[in-house]
Amino acid sequence: MRSKIVVFLTRLRDVFARRRLDADLAEEIETHLALLTDEYVRRGMSEPEARARARAQFGSISAVRDRHWEARGFVHLDAWSRDARIAARMLRRTPGFTAAAVVALGLAIGVSTTVFAVVNATRLRGLPVEEPERIVRIHYPRDDAGRDSGVSFRDFEDFSLASGLEGIAAFRKTSFTLSGDERAAEQFPGLYISSSGFSLLGVPAAEGRYLTAADDRPGAVPVVVLGSQVWRSRYEGDPGVIGRTLRVNGVDATVVGVMPEGFAFDFYADLWQPLAQMPGLDRNRRDARELELVGKLGTGVSVDQARASLQSLANESLVPDVKPFTGTLTGDPMLSFSMLSALFVLVVACANVSGLLFARGFHRQREIAFRVALGATRWQIARQLLIESALLALFAGLSGLALSALGLRGFAAAIEGITRPYWIHFTMDVRVVLYLATVSAFSILLFGLAPALHLAVRKAPAHGGIRRFDFALTVVELGVTLVLMTSAGLMMRSFLAIYEADLAVDTSEMTTMGLTLPAPRYETDEERFQLLERLHRALDSVDVIASSTLSSTVPFANAASRALALEARPLPEDSPPTVAFLTVGPRYFETLGIGLREGRAFTSRDGGPGYTTAIVNDAFVSRYLPGGEPLGERIRLTDPRSGEETPWLTLVGVAPTLRHRRFQPEPTVYLPFRYAPSGSLRLIVRGSSGSADAVVPAVRREVRRLDPELALHAIMTGDELRSQSRWPYRVIGGMLLTFAVIALVIAAVGIYAVTAHAVTKRYQELGIRRALGATDRDLTWLVALPVSTQLASGLVLGGLGTLAAGRLLSSFLVDTSSNDALTFGVVATLLAIAAALSCAIPARRAMRIEPGRALRYE
Amino acid sequence: MAKGKRRSPSEDRVDVLQGTLDLMVLRTLASMGPLHGYGIARRIEQVSENALKLNEGTVYASLVRLQQQRWISATWGVSENNRRAKFYAVTKSGRKRLLEETENWRRVSGIIEQLIRLTEGEPSR
Lengths: 858, 125
Description:
By secondary structure, chain A is an alpha+beta fold. Chain A has 26 helices and 21 strands. In chain A, strands 2-3-8-5-7-6 form a 6-stranded mixed β-barrel. Chain A is globular. Chain B is 60% helix and 13% strand. In chain B, helix 1 (9-32) crosses helix 2 and helix 1 crosses helix 3.
């Protein structure tokens, strides 16, 4: 065994000392030959004879060298490194080709890696805890608005007994107002969470401790855990804050600990209080489903197993589901589509490079024929070509890496202001690099294998075969490029549609603020309404404020949804249509700068006794009450989650259609705020012109005057709100557009290269045709014909592709059908123009061929 | 003693020959003391009384293999005609190996000897 190691190491060393060893051997052989020659000379031969004789007796020197090296070094490694060096030299000799291939591939690899990095950050990476793959979310199936349904406290207790789970915790998102410590009241997002939550996640507190079971008992002393953001911004990172008493939502609580930087479970929470502290926590009713659950899988337990063990514990018609905590996020179909698009770009690039390799391969027929004649096996030739491709892929991969790092940074910058969960960081990690390596390796197979095999296997170049494959490659390129361009076009149209729809709202001078009326002090609807009335009157008297209003959500943001029932016409009972729904104060439409189409706006009496009224929008009327007088009709809304029904509401007004959810403007019902004044609301304030800066302080002042414990949060101007709500279209639309442009450029360059090569190949033929009387038009047509056929086929293929991709697209298109003929037409024209331009130059070259020179062309 | 990769019957034969040559070279060095490649080739020719006609270059492959296994060592010196040449000498482990191989060889040839005598001495039936 030892000798084997020694031999191996010696061989390794020999590899590095190659040149010296070669020289040594040469010298030894020279000496040997000289001695032999001298001997023969001594025996009487002449010098040249002796030398020849010595040579013969010695045997083949190259054989000796080969034998020598067989014993030294690694023979196989030699072959590979030699091929690599030859490949590098080849690539250096054709810098144009190499550059085109590396750029095309590099762009494609970079693009696809960037998208993967985004997917990785949002879905694959998981929470920044130990073993993130074991943290799961437990919920009931989604409701119509696509939101997961919550669980009740009873459910939480039941599920705690599940065998598949090592731990389970319940929580509820809320806002906490901190006060009572010489600073102005401030509001922060936070969670009520059961004590098991912290130990489940396994992140230790940075200072003090986190919640324990003792804190989570009914009647325990109220405590609170701070997040590092709050600790730094409000308490200057003073460790002495532990043990201090703060007023949280009006109730005194002791600070017991601070969580470390970078922890904000579950999304962007800054504070945590025990679940037992949650006002209105119903421990008994099974239909009080307001909690969310997080669990930790037992060791070796799969998600399916956990799901099964939970389902056996459920006792109602609702069946719980288990999924990885970071498994899904908004923007899902868009993310999938981006991933698909990025892969399409890769396909285009690979088809392109494959075509280029084929074209170049044609010029090397002779070289390869020589090598075959000299004894190279097919495998050796294929290997050398593959190594060339591998080298290309290596360079492309490296450039792709740099590109994707930049792209990722750009993406992160583009969505800088958008609130997102704390566990999403757009950084590169090992998984992303592995993906890049895999994609690079895979693309070698994709573009390198076919030409390599083709050249190595064919004895005589089969022109028909090459041409067909070439043809197919270009058709695929064009088709895929078309799909990408169409998608980008459709996204742009959607963006424009949204943009136009949003213009209805006048966001100049508009500011929105969030306000929470915490439960212990504002228990009943009436208490809340009274405060808001007083606030409304106070704001009315402020100079800088032109008008103010409130609503349950701001425009462009997520409205709730309700099932609809019409008095005039029965609608399907089992799957009633849903409408967007929000509650708004009086002067809502006025503050937004919108005039009603019909009827009147709400007054402060609407929503009170005897005034069960509602306002709907244009989209609602055209969908549900076409052709007729909508005012006076009655409707009823039902909350699909809790089954709560409104009484029959009378329509008193029709508003223009605004966008209240991310995508499509849709039928919307507005209810008076007084009808259901929630504790968490948005103030919308329009300042009188030129007073934007003064508005927020004024509102703050009035709020504090009414109740110093109240605080504003989430302050945003109307413009900010509007552009933020459009971010998916902006960012992802931008990405798609970039992809489409990249694909177009790659395809165009590819067409140019292939056409130019074709002209070179047919130089003689074209010259002869010219000599025989072909006109400019004839020659141009000859050159352009294949491209035209490819374009036509590519359009067909692309059209089919768009239809197929349409399903993914349609879920986020606005006012645009995925089969939009206009977009397709424009895109197809652009593509045709690009293709025409690409073969214009080779066509001109063809036209300038002199017959005489062509005939002599070799 | 030699390493081989993909083996065909002819390659096997080559290996046996290589092994035998390696042994002869080792033996030569052990008995003659340090020699250079030319000297070894001459000696082998001499000893085998010209019966062994091999291409002299093959000695060098042997020398590399023996060097790899650390059974001989090499130093640069000056040859008879004032040229630089590598002189090879057997090492201690080389001598040990030689003893083993010689023993082996003797044993094998003894067995073969026996077999031959046995079949020759068989009375025909």
